[in-house]
Every structure is written in structure tokens, then in C-alpha cells.
Amino acid sequence: MKQGKGLPVFSGVAIGPAVVYRKSQRVLPVSSGDPQLEQSKFDAARETARQQLSQLYEKAKAELGEDKAAIVEVQMLMLDDLDYLDGVADAIAGGAAAAIAALDTGESFAQIFAAMDDEYMNARSADIRDMSHRVYDILCGNTGFQLPEGSFLLVAEDLAPSETIQLPRERILAFVTRQGSSSSHTAILARTLNIPSLVQANLPLEDAENCEVLAVDGFTGTWYTDPDPETLAMLKEKQAAAADARFALEAYRGKKSVTKSGKSVLLCANIGSPEDARAALAGDAEGVGLMRSEFLYLGRSSLPTEEELFDAYRTVAEIMGQRPVVIRTLDIGADKQVSYMGLEKEENPALGLRGLRICLTREEIFLPQLRAIYRASAYGNLSVMFPMVASLWELKAAKALCAKVRAELTAEGVETKEVPIGVMIETPAAAVLAPELAKEAAFFSVGTNDLTQYTLAVDRQNAKLGDFYDPYHPALMALLAHIAKSANEAGIWAGICGELGADPKMTETFLKMGFTELSMAPGRILETRKLVCESEV
Ligand code: PEP
Ligand code: MG
Fold it and tell me: How far apart are the CA of 289 and the centre of ligand 2, in A?
């Protein structure tokens, strides 16, 4: 048994096999921005695929006979198919990364074959997929990352949102990363999934790779490889106690979130997908206070269509029924990167083209999202809010686009509802300008993760700055009080949707300040309601 420490970002105990995700094994399929370079990468990968397949063919022929080996031969022929090669070249010329071009072209051909009225051709669809996945894997260096059948603890140096989004969430028992911070998006995902997780863990990747069982204690921030029987028994006991504590909180399910003196607060969930909306209901959320809509854009090779977005928002609206749902518009940039938007690499991405700044400069991206939100508004109780606002003109410009979209839809005969428009307060400028913004906004929701980062000039992603990232800093508290006061004076509501919203040490303070909504990981709602109901405030 070996053991070590990490910074716990969610409590609980997980025990199971470890899977190590090494970035060196996986290169994200991001375009270099140079189509010629991407084409030459594809050509080289095709050559490697050809060599691999010919070795496979010889092996299959020797072991299984020529008949069976013919399957491999078909794939080798597909590698030379001129239509496939043209499709890839066109996608690369259009800005796609070589890996994505190989994969997507393969997928479109596979779908064409699958739709043919011929059994033999239908069967070739799987071969095309196999072949294009092989080229994709070569381009991404995917040689050794394999997931086991059942549940596992995921260990990595670090994880980006575009990576976590592609993981089978329901099978992950815990995250353990050597880097990362408590407000990174991996930590946020861990809280959403209710799984114990450690960041900044001193677990060597080799130890995780070589152990049979990994255990994580999210209460103490300890990891154990191959725990001895005594430790295992202690961990199992803790696991059972945690389950009992969760059970005791069930007494607060369905209750109103009101303090002893009658102050009520709306306890809502932070979600990233329609699937999470079900988790929000399971957690007894009174609404969705933050839908991180950018998660619909991550982990894919092209922009989601208006139709796809509409489907997602409508599903969330329908799942939540009359409960309010706040959709935050696209917040790409900083740690949430997508390859297909053609955004330039920035020296300072957290201070760069991010959130609403992208939307206001790329209307072809923003307008379909707004159309989808307005179309979905007819199916529930939707609000919209903009991230990374720093100036009044940004809010006015975004509101004007909302009005334009709604008018267009009405002219098209599409039913829409009034959608309250709010602002995320996550830049110090927005916090200071709260009284002015409140005249133009229907509500405020404070993004304490970014507000902390920008107020203290401390990168929320940087593990070395942990002690300096202080969300309780007096400067933050002053800004929060000012935001709530400005909202109350203007007669609009203000909530907190950053990670601090679920901090039990802050619940009473927020109520006293005048916040009337707290939005958090669905698994935190019942324990926060207990605090609210027990409070004298
Ligand atoms: C925040 O900044 O507090 C927030 C809620 O948004 P995100 O964590 O997605 O940046
Ligand atoms: Mg933010």
C-alpha cells in the first residue's frame, strides 16, 4: 500500500480500478491553422495506417485464412478511395484538423453506406468507420488509452473540459489529477457528478498504473494504492457513513428553502446538458440557475446546429417544467477551447476573446444560439444571461441582438415567450457598475469563480496559486455586498452561481447580503436547504 495527499474538491470515498489518462498518449485533434501542414499530417497517417493494415492482413491470413483476412483488405482499399480522399482534402481546406477531417469524412461515408439498400454495402459501413478511426487514432497518438468495462477512478496529470466531456461520466467513480485547482472545470464536474475527487494530488501516474485498487478519501484528501485490509475496512465504513448522511438529508426533499425568520431563497442547480437537468430534479433543485451552454459546443468537431441547440434547450425546459431555467450564452475561451471556431492562440486567454466577447464579434455563432433559446422559450420558463460582461454597451448590444432574433422569429410565425435577460457578474468592472447594469438587466448572477480570479489577479487554473486564490478575500466580500445591494435597490433579483454558492460557510452571509438565489451542483442542494431552514437570518 502507498498513500499520499491531494486537495479534495468533493467529499466521499471511492474504491476501484484506476485508469490513467496520459496526454502524451492523446493529442487533441486541434488544427494547426495551416491546411497544407494538416494535409501532410493526414498523408503520413494514411501511410502508417496502410502499413498497420498490411501487417494485420498477413497475421489474419496466417491465423484465420484468406477469407477472413479479406475484411482487412477492404479497409486497405478504402484508404485509397478517391471520394474519401477528396472529402478529407475538402474538410482540411475548410479549416478542419487532419484527425477531424479523417473521422468526419469517414462518418459521412459510413452513413451513406448504412443507408444503402444492399446488405453487403451496409456491412461496409463498419469497415469505413474502423478505417477512419484508425487514421484518427494515429493522428492523435491514441495508442494506449483504453477504458475498462465497468466503473473506474480516472487519474491524469490534468484534464481539460473538452476532454472530460468525452468521458463516460456514469462509470467514473473519482477524478484524481496531479494539477488543477478547486475552481477548475474538472472540479466543477466532479461536484456535479457527486464524486469524490482530488486535484494537485501527489500520486505518481506509474503508481496508479501499476496498482490493482485505488482508493480516494475525499474527506481527508488522501489517496491509497492497493490499500491494506485495515485501511480498506476504514474506508468502507466512511463510505457507509456518507451514505447514511445523504439519507438523513432526504428529510429536506420537497421542502421550501426558508429561514426561521421567513427569508426565502431559491436553491437551483448548475448544469451543462439536458442529462444534467435530470440530475437537477433528482437533487430537488428549484430551478436551473446556470446552464453552462458551452458544454454543448465542446468535444465535437463542428458547431452545433440551431436545431441541435433548440432540441437541447427545449429538453431542459420541458424537464424543468415551470421551474426557472437560466441559460448562460456561450462561454468559450480560457480553459474551454474548441478547435473548429478558428480562434487564434492567445498569450493570455483568460483575458482574451472569451464569452460574450466572442459572441459579439462572431454573430454567425451567436445568433443561432439566441434563436434556439427563443424558440425553446415556448416550452418552459427560460431566462438568458451573458458571461464576461465588463461594460454597459456589451449588455445593450447583446440585448439588441435578442430583440432582433425575437422579432425575426415572430415574423416567421414562430411562437416565443418573453425571456428575462440577466448578467453574470464576474468581472470587477461589472461588479462596480452593478447600479448601472441593474437598470438594463432583469437579474444578476455572480460568477464567483471568475470574479475571484479577476479581482485578485490570480489564475483560477494555476495549481501553484492555491493559497492566493481566496474567494473570501475582503475585496470580494465588498463587491458581493455591493452587487446584492444594487440589485435590491433596483428591484431585481441577484444570485450566486459560482462555486461559493454551495459553500456552507457562506450561506448565511449571502442571505444577509440580500442574495435570493443560490445555484450549485445538484448534489449540494439538500445540505444547503438544511442550512437555510436552520438559519435564524
Ligand atoms: C464563475 O465564473 O463563477 C462561473 C459560474 O462560471 P464558470 O465557472 O463556468 O466560468
Ligand atoms: Mg465564469
Answer: 13
